[in-house]
Amino acid sequence: MNNFVFYNPTRLIFGKGSISKISGEIPRDKKVLLTFGGGSVKSNDVYNQVRYALKDHSCTEFWGIEPNPTIQTIRKAVELLKREKSDFILAVGGGSVLDATKLISAAGMYIGDPWDLVLHPALYKESVPYGTVITLPATGSEMNKGAVISNRDTHEKFSFYSTYPKFSVLDPVTTSSLPPYQIACGLADTFIHVIEQYLTKTGESPLMDRWAEGILSTIVEIAPKIREGERSYEYMATFMLSATMALNGFISMGVSQDWATHLIGHELTALKGITHGHTLAIILPGTMWVLRHEKMEKILQYGKRIWNIEDRDNEKAAGMIIQKTADFFTSLGLKIRLSENGVDRETIRVIKERFRKRDYHLGENRSVDAEITEQILNYVY
Ligand code: NZQ
Ligand code: ZN
């Protein structure tokens, strides 16, 4: 096990009716900026519940944070925050609203352009405190300090790290309005967050392995039920908590991490607009296949424990395990080949060139460079 420091101060407020508790979490004298997406929160009563809970607080609203939030929209929100002198932010929506809010809160304490903070992490110092009401289980943004910010002008998408939410409200009832495609992408995103922190090396931490496998097996168990329309409270509650636990640091203590699939996937979103979780379902089988030799022991452990697949021939077993993983994503209703999703060979060339210029060496062994990325993309074409 590697050395590590673990710290996660976010207060989780979980369950039916929990939105009413936010009033007790935000001091009454705070000027609150509420941040929203495109309006889903008005279709499912979340907006009404938030406004009712904060009826005695002074609030300003910012609307229009788009999926894959852009710096262009964030700049407008920061202007409003500064003009109104808001000193608390409440993000209400999916991961995109939460991610945008992380940069809004950091830029609220910074005098220059918010994009500087994305390009130069050392410039980040502090944030306006913020809480969240998450309505889409997927990103784990409700209990981590990461955000992913897009730039509409340059078609780029980069990670940004600030500070944790003070609190996050997770009410599974809020997910009842989610379209099936967003559910499928959320399930894939959750599954692959675990994979990024698990499918690396064996023997680093049996405890982390079992926790990670617990989340993977849970997603495999509930996904078909949720997909078949049984969106019961219990299944959605399990999905929601799985998504949070998959990316809040609890399964990454002392173990190697990969994240190559995510960084390649971000390019597909930036260049082609494909939804985040969907990009991962497309790329992961390619990452597994191209890197199967360096990841072989862990692939075999994963195959045996999650899919009950074993074979004396490792290469054959790996092939079956990767196929089973791909089939799982297909069973969610996702098309998992680049060519089925409007991505052409030119896009592969552009991604390879970007990775070459950025001198990327991704993955737990830093082996995923521009050439390996091209192999991964060609495999899933
Ligand atoms: O904008 P509104 O109207 O709210 O609609 C949203 C949006 O159109 C809708 N939606 C959200 N909750 C809903 C709902 N519709 C009906 N009922 C509900 N309860 O769903 C659409 C997608 O929302 P979005 O927030 O974009 O999805 P998601 O939560 O998957 O977030 C994706 C973003 O998070 C980043 C991704 O890169 C992407 O930009 N990620 C953030 C991470 C993090 N902070 O740690 C890690 C992830 O790996 C990921 O990269
Ligand atoms: Zn993700």
Low-confidence stretches: none
User: Briefly, what CATH class of the largest domain?
Assistant: Mainly Alpha
Q: H/E element string?
A: EHEHHEHEHHEEEEHHHHHHHHH
Ligand inventory reads: 5,6-dihydroxy-NADP, zinc ion
Strand order of the largest sheet: 1-8-5-4-2-3
Quick one: CATH superfamily of the largest domain?
Dehydroquinate synthase-like - alpha domain
> What is the structural class?
alpha/beta
When the domains are counted, the total is 2
Secondary-structure arrangement, i.e. CATH architecture of the largest domain: Up-down Bundle
Structure annotation, total helices: 15
Mean pLDDT: 97
Rg over CA atoms: 20 Å
User: In what range is the share of β-strand residues?
Assistant: 5-15%
Care to count the β-strands? 8
Distance between the termini: 37 Å
Descriptive labels:
381 residues; alpha/beta; Rossmann fold; Dehydroquinate synthase-like, alpha domain; 2 domains; six-stranded parallel β-sheet; 8 strands; binds 5,6-dihydroxy-NADP; binds zinc ion
Task: Write up this protein.
- By secondary structure, this protein is of the alpha/beta class.
- The protein folds into 2 domains: 11-174, Rossmann fold (3-Layer(aba) Sandwich); 179-379, Up-down Bundle (Dehydroquinate synthase-like, alpha domain).
- 50% of the residues lie in helices and 11% in strands.
- It is built from 15 helices and 8 strands.
- Strands 1-8-5-4-2-3 form a 6-stranded parallel sheet, sandwiched between helices.
- Strand 6 (146-151) and strand 7 form a beta hairpin.
- Helix 14 packs antiparallel against helix 15.
- The chain is globular, with a radius of gyration of 20 Å.
- The model has no long low-confidence stretch (mean pLDDT 97).
- Bound molecules: 5,6-dihydroxy-NADP (NZQ) and zinc ion.
- 5,6-dihydroxy-NADP (NZQ) is lined by residues 37-41, 44, 67-68, 93-97, 99, 135-136, 138-141, 144, 146-148, 174-175, 177-178, 182, 189, 247, 262, 276.
- Zinc ion (ZN) binds at residues 139, 189, 193, 262, 276.
